[in-house]
Design goal:
By secondary structure, the chain is α+β, with helices and mostly antiparallel strands. It contains 7 helices and 16 strands.
Length: 281
């Protein structure tokens, strides 16, 4: 039976060493970046968000090391990049119960929030319930969790949805791994979606019209992206975010962008260790 309380990909977490510098860099790429958010002392982290229609990107940095954020601390010792991905759940408590019923030691639900500065000068709070799959269940090296938005209006703020590069939403997360078939099968098992082999790699849908995952090996990665675009990505794990734009000309105007194969790529060296590939919406 498919998971009833999992809707699809919600957001992608890009871990960065210098949070404010990363936000400035992504603004130069044509993204509208939210005001900085600060999580609780227990979490010890802060973030900036880049929101679209139904999904978003999160730039996450460590402000103070705590027992809770050690996985991110260790990740950043190797470099910046996509550290984890989140799926939308409409009920975190019911969702974690479903996962546990399948014999997985899922964690949650956990409630937390963060203050939000609104464009009009007001204040709000973004509130969430989340649950996590076991830490050792990381397909292709990518940790996954699920997020229930209790205050979506505090995340998807209308003034933040328009981007100079025309970005409209997430299309795909691409994962580099020595064993793409195994990694795709693992993700499919965890979220109850089938894996489909294609000429590009192995795809796993996440639900509805939300972004999917593509798993491939180093040879396929090299075929898809020029060498200069790939430089700065990690040796494995999630390496590319494919983003829909309403106008490829806007993406081509990004400094350092490379047009190829009908799309436009921003090199990983300019985007916190992550290749950004724009395609026409």
């Amino acid at each position: 039976m498919p998971l009833k309380h999992l809707i699809g990909l919600d957001h992608v977490v890009v871990a960065v060493r210098d949070l404010d510098a990363a936000a400035a860099a992504w603004k130069k790429l044509g993204f509208t970046v939210s005001p900085r958010g600060t999580h609780s002392a227990h979490l010890g982290s802060g973030n900036y968000t880049i929101v679209f229609g139904d999904d978003y990107l999160e730039l996450l940095g460590i402000l103070n090391e705590t027992p809770h954020n050690q996985a991110t601390v260790q990740f950043l010792k190797a470099g910046e990049g996509i550290e984890r991905t989140a799926f939308t759940t409409d009920d975190a408590a019911a969702g974690v119960a479903e996962v546990k019923a399948r014999g997985l030691a899922a964690d949650g639900p956990v409630h937390f929030g963060r203050p939000v500065d609104l464009p009009n000068g007001g204040k709000s709070e973004a509130k969430f319930n989340i649950f996590r799959w076991p830490a050792d269940e990381a397909p292709g090296g990518v940790r996954i969790f699920a997020c229930q938005h209790l205050t979506p209006e505090a995340v998807w703020i209308p003034e933040l949805k328009t981007h100079a590069n025309g970005a409209k939403g997430l299309v795909r997360v691409e994962v580099l791994t020595d064993k793409p078939k195994d990694a795709a099968a693992q993700l499919g098992r965890l979220i109850d979606q089938g894996a489909t082999e294609t000429a590009e790699g192995v795809r796993v849908a996440t639900g509805g019209r939300r972004a999917d995952f593509l798993f491939y090996d180093a040879a396929a990665f090299a075929r898809r992206y020029p060498d200069g675009v790939r430089q700065g990505t990690p040796a494995g794990g999630a390496v590319v975010i494919v983003i829909a734009t309403d106008d490829l000309a806007k993406a081509r105007a990004i400094p350092g962008a490379v047009a190829h194969d009908g799309g436009v790529s921003v090199p990983a060296s300019a985007a916190s260790g992550t290749v950004l590939h724009f395609v026409q919406a």
